[in-house]
Amino acid sequence: MAKKTTTPAPAISIDAVKEQVKTHLTPKDTKGNPAHDRHLTDSQRTWLIIDEITDGLKSQNPQGGITKALVVKAVTELVQEGIIKQRLRKPPHISEYTSVH
After folding, report:
1. Which of these, 101, 84, 62, lies nearest to 18 by C-alpha position?
2. Where are the domains of the chain?
3. Bridge partners of 85?
4. pTM of the entire structure?
5. Which CATH class is domain 14-24+44-99?
6. In angstroms, how far is the first alpha carbon of the chain from the final one?
């Protein structure tokens, strides 16, 4: 009889991933500090898709245990909480995300 394998628990909590996603989507000024973009129109904001967010977080911390599934869950919760915005990109209709603040 084959042994049942279990997947290990994620190395990083969903709250930590949510914080990293918020930081990644927050615009930065020339010194790297958070810049407020309340006066920007939607077309002036930086919009990223899930793959771009995941790649950015993985490049910042390659050993962090960030997976696409964790990023999707974090982004979904942040959209529901109203912390980030979501829109559909014109064809191929992929969701894009940006910071609200």
Report:
1. 84
2. 14-24+44-99
3. 98
4. 0.77
5. mainly alpha
6. 55
